[in-house]
Amino acid sequence: MDESGIAANVARAIAAALDWTSTPDARAAAHSYLESIKAGDTHVLANTSFLLVKKDWSSEIRLHAFKMLQHLVRLRWDQLSPVERRKFANLAVDLMSEIANPSEEWALKSQTAALVAEIVRKEGPNLWQELFPSIITLSNMGPIQAELVAMVLRWLPEDITVHNEDLEGDRRRILLRGLSQALPEILPLLYTLLERHYGAAMMEASRQQMDIAKQHGAAVVAAVNAVNAYAEWAPLPDLARYGIIYGCGFLLTSPDFRVHACEFFKLVSPRKRPVDASSDFDSAMRSVFEVLMNVTKDFFMKSSSSGGSSDSEFEFAEYICESLVSLGSTNLQCIAADSTVLSFYLQQMLGFFQHSKLALHYQSLLFWLSLMRDLMSKSKNALADGLNTGTGQADNEKRNMLALVTDDVCCAILDTSFQRMLMKEKVHPGIAPAVGTLELWSDGFDSKVDFSQYRSRLLELIRFIACHKPLVAAAKVSERITEVIKSFMVVLLPTKDLAMIESMHLALENVVSSIFDGSNEYGKNSTEIQLSLHQIFEGLLQQLISLKWTEPTLVEVLGHYLDALGPFLRYYPDAVGAVINKLFELLTSLPFMVKDPSTSSARRARLQICTSFIRIAKAASESLLPHMKGIASTMTYLQTEGVLLRAEQNLLGEAFLVMASSAGVQQQQEVLLWLLEPLSKQWTQSEWQEAYLTDSTSLVRLCADTKFMWSVFHTVTFFEKALKRSGFRKGSPSSENSSKTNSPAEHPMVSHLSWMLPPLLKLLRAIHALWSPSVAQALHGEMRAAMLMSDVEKAGLLGEGKVKLPKGALTFHDGSQFDISREAYSEPNEADIRNWLRGIRDSGYSILGLSATLGDSFFRCMDPHSIILALMENIQHMEFRHIKQLVHLALVPLVKFCPSDLWDAWLEKLLHPLFLHVWQALTCSWSSLLREGKAKVPDLHGVLAGLDLKVEVMEEKLLRDLTREICSLCSVLAAPGLNAGLPSLEQAGQVSQMDDSSMRDLEAFASTSMVGFVLNKKDLAVPILKICIEAFGWTDSEAMSKVTSLCGLVILLAISTDNVELREFVCKDLFSAIIQGLTLESNAIISAELVGLCREIFIYLSNRDPSPRQILLSLPCITLQDLLAFEEALSKTGSPKEQKQHMKSLLIMATGNKLKALATQKAVNIITNVTMRNRNSDAAPDSSLDEGDAIGLAAIT
């Protein structure tokens, strides 16, 4: 068949493939025919495609033909002879002349230019040098030809900064070198195109020749797009030398082209200064500064003169502000030497910060935050390293910059920050005048940033300003609070509209904490400044104390203001007494008993005031010690009068413990005795234990006794607080764990454990029993409902955010809350019981964990049987979220701090039932998730139908959470401090060269290594090792990263001991599982560690067990010669790094590159003087085990 006939057939096939009315069979046949043409004879493909790009055919067919030509160039170019390639290139350039027609579509022009660029990339610089004269000639022929030339220039460097797997290695370097050498030709050409066609477009537009003006305009846009392709990597001095910076700066004055030009400055502004850069770079970057600052000056002038700007003006200003922020964040040193220019720049950024438009303000906020963070850290470092002459010049620059952040600048930043700490939706019309014309933050402003994140950035900036100018910050925040309070008193807004006054307590808290931060910074201020600060805050404090607010919401706010001044009280203790008296005054001004939910704000306010005592006790430290007796007397009086609820007593007691912690152990012991003695009398009574803790039925009766139920709750939570606050310091287990000297016998809580823990263990045991089937079936409906997951917990699992609850709510250990003010109601409902059960469980676990940190005082005095019985008796019936909390709060500390000589008595019986159950549960759930997409966890039984998708999400979250917690426990078993008796890998490697008779028995490590102890207990070791093996197949990289440390020590013990069974497990099961784990893309982040484990097994154990070699030889793409070559390569190097690389290469080769965790990551190529552009890409999902990508391991399993 002749070429025209083939072309006609191809055209019909393209039409059929693109016609949605064609039958599926017809489209499939068309696709098959087109693929056969693309894979067939290259000459037929080329000739046919060149025929089909002619104007005789439809646009769709022509576009497809261009793509066929590009396919030939990309994938089959080497199949053409040099002469044919040159002829092909000339034909492609000729196409540019043919397609330069006003009636041609832009897409066809773009594809033509892309084809020419593709050819140049394949052929290299030599072809480009030959084509360049004709390219110049073509660009001079008219605006359409110029547009095509600009398109080619734009496509040429695309592969330098954007990865293209068709351009790798030498060819990429040759292209980069060629384009770099051609920049003196390319950049002037682009400038000429910009200048010529911008002028022509303006002239033709003035003549009303709009069609021709649009053609010139299109050429300008194409030239700017081409310039942007070089802006990321071309040397900045070249961009300045050939007029590109000036040209794009000029286009910023044109409404038609300025958005395109903005892209150039957006790309250039974050370009980092090369280490070897000359002054030319600084000069060029300074030009960028000047261009953008001049445009900004015009924007502010227009805004002030016209009284406003259009939306397009604001959009343009946002682009300019974004570039200025990038400049200031990366290249401020280029203008740092000129204080006039730098000051002008800072004034402009301040103008953006103060601007009413939120988008402009927010961009500038990021700059000021970055600047102040850098300057404040540098200024402190400069003081510390004042004698270091090497950094003297940089420090001087920083000090000069900091000097330009004047009092006036700081005042302006603070004024704006205070105003913007409000959310638009929460502003009451009555305070609108105070806000002015500011566009406040709204929920719809930025989907990636919420208001709390924005406000935290404002507060961080306020802290930096307070550190830099403490007197200015103190005066401003005091002035603003005074103003807000006065306006509030005048307007008399409803108490629900307290957004303005509530927001300022955060500002006060951050200013005060920054100035009186407990370090030496405050002491470095002059006496005059300290006196002024004292006067400002003392005046503010007197004003706050004089307020006679009794409305609960206002009392709550006032409590926040008073505790915000806590750090100030540390340095000025004379004011402490007045604050304490005011807090007690506020507390007693609120009603004590409230049964109507509508008045619960009084309860929350009372709890907040009690919480303020804790915050002040923490912040003021020793300043409260002289007032402890007075506080104790007042507490005793209020308790005697019966006007303190248990929750309030707990908070005040906790505050007392905080105060006592700074007074020494003896004071703590006295305080604890005073606080705990009344509780112990009730807690240790046998009557209530016999009535309520004998079995689960009696526990149900306890949940019906509201008053006693909450009394038990508050007793337990206070025990937890007492352990945390009374000298408890988190320690880390180490080799001293095996010594009897590690327990802090002086800890003030030690003497209380003996009476505190036994009833608690009974309570926990009874709660755990509720979930056993025999008990659960007999429970009444409300109790069963209380055992189900709450809506708040479900929302948390779904990532739907936390439900906002009262500020007096109790926070659980997972961060969720519930309102404890409901304790006063007569009848507990389902939610009350659920919260009570959860609170007792979490606090109980925490108490056991905190007690374990006391070491010998706990482990040698407590009966392990009672603890094991309480925690493990019903472990098989516990839900995943409960096991997670148990492990995290109780079991991890118990393992960490148990003395080694007590491991037998405590840990074997404690850990065996846990790991046995968890192994079975996790195996079942993961198997279900990977095969069916549903985890099937016990926590969500009973959830209403119709929520299938949400249930699946919640189940997977619960499964992953428990998996990670269990793997964390495995990593604790492998902690260095618990395995001090193990040799290093190098020492073990030397031992491995001996025969088994010369090696130590596994039992020899059981007393000095936790992992040795575990492996020596076979019943305990089996489920733990099974979890490790199966974790390699679970698509959870976080869990996998935690279990690798345990696997490493298991391998180490296999190398160090004569235990044949352990060695066989490591060499066969573990080695195979690791390779299988490398098939999962989710394990890419820890692939280096996994390869390292493979290397250790092969290097140290393959001479003692044949399994590693057998497993490698079972892989699909390896031969015996490959393995021998690998072993020879290993023998030639003693470098672990090189051996790991050899192992990695072998695994990739042996599996046919099927190990997704080791797949080459196609990253952006890093080239000198190139700034990477951010490009979003969707991460590939984790691979399922059922995808059929087996790599040959099936033969050995």
Question: What is the compact description of this entry?
Answer:
The chain has 54 helices and two strands.
Describe the structure.
One of its GO terms (cellular component) is RNA nuclear export complex. This is Protein HASTY 1. InterPro entries: ARM-like, ARM-type_fold, Exportin-1/Importin-b-like, Exportin-5_C, XPO1/5. One of its GO terms (molecular function) is RNA binding. The chain is mainly alpha-helical and 1197 residues long. Among the domains are: 76 residues, no CATH class; 153 residues; 117 residues; 245 residues, no CATH class. Strands 1-2 form a two-stranded antiparallel ribbon. A hairpin with a 5-residue loop joins strand 1 and strand 2. Helix 8 packs parallel to helix 11, helix 32 runs antiparallel to helix 35 and helix 48 runs parallel beside helix 50. The radius of gyration is 37 Å and the shape is globular. The two termini are 57 Å apart.
Kindly state the mean pLDDT as a whole number? 85
Record the strand order, biggest sheet: 1-2
State the end-to-end CA separation.
57 Å
What is the share of helical residues? 55-70%
Structural class: mainly alpha
The helix tally amounts to 54
Number of strands: 2
> What is the approximate shape?
globular
GO molecular function, one term: RNA binding
InterPro entries: ARM-like, ARM-type_fold, Exportin-1/Importin-b-like, Exportin-5_C, XPO1/5
GO cellular component, one term: cytoplasm
Pfam family, one: Exportin-5
